[in-house]
Design a protein that fits this description.
The complex is a heterodimer of chains A (412) and B (414). Chain A has 412 residues and is α+β, with helices and mostly antiparallel strands. In chain A, a hairpin with a 5-residue loop joins β1 and β2. In chain A, α9 packs across α12 and α10 packs antiparallel against α11. Chain B is an alpha+beta fold and 414 residues long. Chain B folds into 2 domains: 202 residues, 2-Layer Sandwich (Cytochrome Bc1 Complex, Chain A, domain 1), CATH 3.30.830; 177 residues, Metalloenzyme, LuxS/M16 peptidase-like (Cytochrome Bc1 Complex, Chain A, domain 1, 2-Layer Sandwich). Helices cover 43% and strands 19% of the residues of chain B. Chain B contains 15 helices and 13 strands. In chain B, the strands form 3 sheets. A 6-stranded mixed sheet of chain B has the order 1-2-8-3-7-6, with helices on both faces. In chain B, strands 9-13-10-12-11 form a 5-stranded mixed sheet, sandwiched between helices. In chain B, α3 packs parallel to α8. The chains are: A alpha+beta (412), B alpha+beta (414). At the A-B interface, α2, α4 and α12 of A face α2, β7, α4, α10 and β12 of B.
């Protein structure tokens, strides 16, 4: 594995982990643009723009974009989150140049009005689809409850109304605000010819004009509380609880991930034994996610409606016990074994490495090899895990439940 | 060139099939045991899944908790699934932990506790899984489509039915285990980094004495209906469409696969282009080949807002019918490019390969290397696929919809 990086004159970063043994090449443009960069008037524009990138450029129609990806045998997709939009493709190494050229081309989309109007309908379908699946729609509502008016509480999808009413000019304007080359990183993993990557990026992206697109970070005032939303068609009751956790730039994030594994992994964790093994809940998990200026621990529960209140109480009791007694050495050792295994398994695919290398660079301007990550996991002590728990108590946060019940008793 | 595939059949009928990939640090195994839901007795639907859930609750010298803790200590990413024909147990891990992990599964297969004091917990788990499907309308419509398309028991949902799950006793679980967990018909696929000689010896030592038993027969009933609508107060109507195809072991399988790839492989494929890109009717639309050992089907899915569901159904069925008019060479070329990279990228996943070679063995009695699959794909031409489509035009559709309104289905369908 060899780490290489380079910055073009216009500010576009190129970062690569080159592995000569790999069978494929994964490439991705990571753009710092997401729901947090929006206002109410353009809610959902980041995600809508991600769709529009595939709808044509000055030199390609939408059909030509799709056909070209398929001709290259590319396995590709894009995704939008609160903070980033990522466009990626995995190809055979022989197609590296062509894939970079194509991805670079769609990073300067035409945003034609007729395509825009057709794609609006697809986005509305996507919103309706998630709304029909209570476990999916709930996460955005829970984030809104927890972050309150902080931009991280904004919806990625937007609403049927905000998307339907969005004028194409507002998308052009948003693009001009966020898609500056200095706000974009091109990541490459697997079998990468780095010199060719630099040459092709110069040719395809070197002419992109830089502009100012600083993101203002404001401290989040996190909300606690308990809220129940009735969803008539739901069969199960769902609950999401969000609480504070180490942010992306905080070295405690490894301890936080191990803590989440000990308490809420989907196999063999404390919550698993308490709620899943016993059949009291269909699913329960605890996960750590990181943002630029905040971290979040998310507890997810799905169970029969009548069992929801008692299960939420059991979860809170598990958290309180952990807060007072910490975690055991045996639990920590087991969590390290699981996490290390996952790091190695996901790292065997260049596609898996792409996201690890990408988030290391986007959030920390740092490269970490698989060995670095394994060493960081191995080095965490039980005291460090307890310290994280003391600083970021899981028993304090915002809970949202959604399901057939009008109300659910909040745990005490 | 990919590595050759190694295999060994033990005297009790157990098959070990393995593909080394030395560029990986990991290894993965997939056990397919002939304990699928087609063997659920009458009035005991879901028993196969229930038995799988119980089998994980302690085996050999370890109780339920120790068993899972040991798997977690070894860092085994494990997964269980029940299909029509099989119960599958799979795991991926660092290479050095394979022998210890196999030891755990050898206990599970031969010495499970099936503890009576955990029967109620397992029942609750099964009932929760059944309820969860109700909140996943896209999954639900496809389960119902399979049930409507294949003759019973081949189309059964593995989750079972509530009444049956509530009746299951510990004797049911134990006799189901005795009937369906046996070495004849069990296949172990292993892929990634391992030493073949050591692996073969380990499996022989752990499972060579597993006692063979007679497999249970499957009794088929004729299929009943072609169009079924399920009322559901949702925004979208979920649409499932099925038609007959050939199974994996049929000499024409890759022709059928190629035709479906033109419909649904990649975003320049016909369904995505016509239903989503040109008309904006839905977010998700696809078609895929599904295979049982003796029969195959194509299952299509689309989900669209209720007021546009009729148009979505009509356009989708129109595309299925248009397939019979033939495909173009450039459509096949794009499909081949996608398949070439998919095959090469499959080598990057030990878990994917271990499952693929185990399933190959079930269907063919041998496993295909990725090179062999590549040659079969290369040999396809648009003429060969069109000849297949002339003989096997999509038609005689089974349709299931789930949403606020029933749809109009044309004469050909109903």
């Amino acid at each position: 594995m060899k780490f290489r990086n380079h910055t073009l004159k216009n500010g576009l970063h190129l970062v690569a982990e080159c592995n000569d043994e790999a069978h494929s090449t994964a490439l991705g443009f990571f753009v710092e643009a997401g729901a947090r960069d929006e206002t109410d008037a353009v809610a959902g524009v980041s995600h809508f723009l991600e769709h529009m990138a595939f709808k044509g450029t000055p030199t390609r129609s939408a059909d030509e974009v799709n056909r070209r990806f398929d001709e290259l045998g590319a396995h590709y997709n894009a995704g939008t989150s609160e903070e980033n939009t990522v466009y990626y493709a995995a190809v055979l190494p022989e197609h590296q140049d062509a894939a970079v050229e194509l991805l670079a081309d769609i990073m300067r989309p035409s945003l034609r009005e007729d395509d825009f109007d057709t794609e609006k309908q697809v986005i509305v379908e996507e919103i309706h689809m998630y709304d029909d699946q209570p476990p999916f729609g709930a996460d955005e509502k829970a984030r809104a409850a927890y972050f309150g008016s902080h931009p991280l509480g904004r919806s990625v999808l937007g609403t049927v109304n905000s998307v339907t009413e969005l004028p194409v000019d507002a998308m052009h304007e948003y693009f001009r605000r966020r898609y500056s080359p200095g706000n974009i990183v091109l990541i490459a993993c697997g079998k990468v010819d780095f010199d060719a990557l630099v040459a092709l990026a110069e040719q395809s992206c070197g002419h992109w004009k830089p502009f100012d697109c600083r993101r203002t970070a404001e401290p989040a005032t996190l909300q606690a509380g308990f809220q129940a939303i009735r969803k008539e068609i739901a069969t199960q009751q769902y609950a999401l609880s969000l609480s504070a956790a180490p942010a992306a730039d905080n070295p405690d994030r490894y301890a936080a991930k191990l803590l989440a594994t000990v308490l809420g992994d989907d196999s063999g964790s404390r919550l698993y034994w308490e709620l899943v093994d016993t059949g009291l809940a269909e699913h329960v998990s605890l996960g750590h996610s990181e943002y630029a200026d905040a971290g979040v621990m998310t507890t997810y529960l799905s169970c029969e409606p009548d069992a929801a209140a008692a299960n939420l109480q059991r979860i809170l009791d598990v958290y309180r016990r952990a807060e007072s007694d910490g975690v055991t050495t045996a639990e920590l050792k087991q969590a390290k074994s699981k996490l290390s295994s996952r790091i190695v398994l996901s790292g065997e695919r260049p596609r898996g490495r792409l996201f690890a290398v990408g988030s290391d660079w986007v959030y920390r301007r740092q490269y970490c090899s698989i060995e670095d990550d394994l060493a960081a996991v191995a080095g965490v002590t039980a005291e460090e895990v307890s310290a994280v728990l003391a600083k970021y108590p899981l028993s304090r946060g915002a809970t949202l439940t959604i399901g057939p019940l009008d109300d659910v008793a909040a745990p005490k | 060139m990919t590595e050759p595939i190694l295999s060994h059949t033990f005297p009790n009928g157990l098959v070990l099939v393995a593909e080394p990939t030395l560029s990986l640090q990991s290894v993965a195994f997939t056990f397919v045991v002939p304990a699928g839901c087609v063997y659920d007795p009458p009035n005991r639907s879901g028993l196969g899944g229930f038995t799988c859930e119980m089998a994980l609750r302690g085996a050999g010298s370890r109780d339920s908790r120790q068993f899972i803790i040991e798997l977690d200590n070894l860092g085994v990413e494990h997964h269980e699934s029940v299909t029509a024909a099989h119960t599958g147990f799979s795991g991926a891990m660092l290479s050095k932990n394979l022998p210890a992990a196999l030891e755990l599964y050898a206990d599970l297969l031969q010495r499970p506790h099936l503890p009576e004091n955990q029967l109620e917990a397992a029942r609750l788990v099964m009932l929760q899984e059944l309820r969860a499907v109700e909140d996943e309308p896209a999954q639900k419509v496809m389960l119902e489509l399979r049930r409507g398309h294949y003759p019973d028991p081949w189309g059964r949902p593995p989750q079972g039915e509530q009444e049956a799950l509530e009746e299951i006793t510990i004797e049911d679980v134990r006799s189901q285990f005795d009937r369906s967990y046996h070495p004849g018909g069990t296949i172990i696929g292993v892929a990634g980094r391992f030493d073949w000689r050591q692996l073969k010896d380990t499996v022989g030592r752990l499972l060579g004495d597993w006692e063979p038993r007679e497999g249970a027969p499957v009794v088929e009933k004729p299929r009943t209906r072609r169009y079924r609508h399920l009322d559901y107060k949702s925004n979208q109507t979920q649409i499932g469409i099925a038609y007959r195809s050939v199974p994996y072991r049929d000499e024409n399988y890759f022709q059928a696969w190629g035709a479906v790839g033109v419909l649904s492989g990649g975003s320049s494929a016909r369904l995505f282009t016509e239903v989503r890109e040109r008309r904006g009717l839905c977010y998700s639309v696809y078609a895929a080949c599904h295979t049982l050992r003796d029969r195959g089907a194509v299952f299509c899915y689309a989900g669209a807002s209720a007021d546009r569901a009729q148009e979505t159904l009509d356009v989708t069925v129109g595309e299925l019918a248009r397939l019979a008019d033939g495909i173009e060479n450039d459509e096949l070329d794009r499909l081949k490019a996608r398949m070439k990279s998919a095959l090469i990228m499959q080598q990057e996943s030990s878990a994917a390969r271990s499952g693929a070679i185990a399933r190959d063995w079930y269907h063919l009695g041998r496993a295909r290397t990725l090179d062999e699959v590549g040659r079969l794909v290369d040999a396809l031409t648009h003429q060969s696929i069109n000849a297949y489509l002339t003989d096997h035009p999509p038609g005689d559709f089974t349709v299931v919809t789930l949403g606020p309104h029933k749809l109009e289905v044309s004469g050909e369908i109903s």
